[in-house]
Design a protein that fits this description.
alpha+beta; four-stranded antiparallel beta sheet; globular
């Protein structure tokens, strides 16, 4: 039998481990904060690099829609902490450095979270949707992603009006599982993030044009079954294209999916492998 980790022994040991991770990251941030992006501008930068809107109240399996309503509140509180942020050359974006702790005292409500391999709830739930949006836009830029966590190859919800490839999401946990990227270019970028009644809206802008544009797409997508378990498979690629000539510069594999499906699979077309 596999020996349990300390954090798996009980809710208390999990809480102790979580607190330890938070303290370690807090100490590290003391040495790194000088490089974090923190300056905002009242004006939008001249060039729009990429835009995307994400529906806030999505039907996700049997998830209580009340958690989605609370998520809308949580996103509306966090968005202004990032909106109009400049990421200048050499600076690193840190989601948790900007948003901070999610507490009831600060107005956050119980929203949807992911714990292990199943949906759960917690104060401030829903922040993954914001880092998903930011990550998707950053994938269309020249910047370098330096910290990115996934939900460990699990497919939690059936597709509902999916507009971006499966596997391009993020997993975060205050403050030790962060989403970070570094501006390794000579361009100053800007994040525009806000909410409406229906959408979390995002735009990545810059003070000059990029040399390249990017296209992210999936291929070889199918469901398979092994030992009674259904998996979602596929590869996600990023095409790099010269903006002026339209010449294809690079095709890069950025994610290979083999994710265990955690919902009713009776309506899926499963491929024999």
């Amino acid at each position: 039998m596999k020996r349990k980790l300390f954090c798996e022994l009980s809710p208390l040991t999990y809480a102790i481990s979580e607190r330890k991770c938070e303290m370690v990251r807090t100490v590290k941030n003391l040495f790194e904060a000088g490089n974090f992006a923190k300056t905002r501008s009242d004006q939008k930068l001249e060039y729009s690099i990429y835009k995307h809107n994400s529906l806030i109240r999505r039907r996700l399996g049997n998830v209580d829609m009340h958690l989605q309503e609370n998520k809308a509140v949580n996103l509306s509180l966090a968005a202004p902490k990032i909106n109009m942020l400049l990421i200048r050359p050499g600076e690193t974006f840190s989601f948790w450095y900007l948003v901070g702790s999610l507490s009831e005292k600060n107005g956050y409500k119980e929203g949807l979270t992911i714990f292990s391999d199943h949906p759960s709830s917690g104060i401030g739930g829903g922040m993954c949707q914001m880092t998903n949006l930011i990550h998707w836009m950053v994938l269309h830029s020249e910047m370098e992603i330096t910290e990115h966590h996934h939900h460990d190859q699990i497919d939690l919800f059936p597709d509902f009006n999916r507009t971006i490839p499966f596997g391009t999401g993020t997993s975060i946990m205050y403050n030790y599982l962060d989403y970070r990227f570094k501006n390794t270019t000579d361009i100053t970028y800007q994040l525009v993030i806000y909410t409406t009644d229906e959408y979390l809206c995002g735009e990545l802008r810059a003070n000059k044009r990029q040399e390249h544009k990017y296209h992210i797409w999936a291929e070889n997508v199918f469901f398979s079954q092994k030992n009674g378990i259904v998996y979602r498979n596929g590869e996600v690629y990023r095409d790099k294209i010269d903006r002026r000539t339209g010449e294809h510069v690079e095709k890069k594999l950025i994610r290979k999916n083999h994710a265990r499906v955690c919902y009713d699979t009776s309506g899926l077309e499963i491929k024999a492998v």
